[in-house]
């Protein structure tokens, strides 16, 4: 049996808008676009990709987690070589920095639709 991770999918009320944010953040290419589905891929790579599907009832997770609240089910880890510079760039694209930061060489941010992601330095 052969298996291959094809994509990581984020639910969002506006797939094209969130895909545009991550396309700019990651420098990835758009492979497919519809109103309810967008798929990005790394330049020169077909898989794995990052996809965005329509979820009209998307609820932002709470960070840090608290009992009885919407829990974070997954998040993206994005390695960078300049943590402060890439944090500023992500914020200029529409991300926000979370108040709670659990590690020195990692920044927890939220994308414009509320998904959490981390920027981190090599070795962190």
Distance between the termini: 34 Å
How much beta, percentage-wise?
Answer: 25-35%
CATH level 4 superfamily of the largest domain: 2,3-Dihydroxybiphenyl 1,2-Dioxygenase, domain 1
Shape, principal axes of CA atoms: globular
* Whole-number tally of structural domains: 2
Strand numbers in spatial order across the main sheet = 1-4-3-2
The major sheet is characterized as: 4 strands, mixed
Structural class: alpha/beta
Mean pLDDT: 94
Runs in which pLDDT lies below 50 for 5 or more consecutive residues are: none
Taking all Cα atoms into account, the compactness measure Rg is 15 Å
CATH-scheme architecture of the largest domain: Roll
Total helical segments: 2
The helix/strand order is: EHEEEEHEEE
Share of helix among residues? 10-25%
Q: Under CATH, the topology of the largest domain is which?
A: 2,3-Dihydroxybiphenyl 1,2-Dioxygenase, domain 1
Number of strands: 8
> At the first level of CATH, what is the class of the largest domain?
Alpha Beta
Pfam family, one: Glyoxalase_6
Protein name: VOC family protein
Domain VOC: 4-124
Organism: Streptomyces gulbargensis
């Amino acid at each position: 049996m052969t298996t291959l991770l094809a994509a990581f999918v984020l639910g969002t009320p506006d797939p094209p808008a969130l895909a545009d944010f991550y396309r700019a953040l990651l420098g990835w290419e758009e492979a497919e676009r519809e109103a309810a589905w967008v798929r990005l891929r790394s330049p020169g790579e077909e898989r794995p990709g990052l996809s965005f599907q329509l979820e009209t009832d998307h609820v932002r997770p709470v960070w840090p987690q608290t009992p009885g609240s919407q829990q974070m089910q997954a998040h993206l880890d994005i390695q960078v070589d300049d943590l402060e510079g890439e944090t500023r760039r992500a914020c200029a694209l529409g991300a926000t920095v979370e108040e709670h930061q659990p590690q020195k060489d990692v920044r927890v941010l939220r994308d414009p639709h509320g998904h959490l992601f981390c920027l981190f330095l090599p070795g962190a």
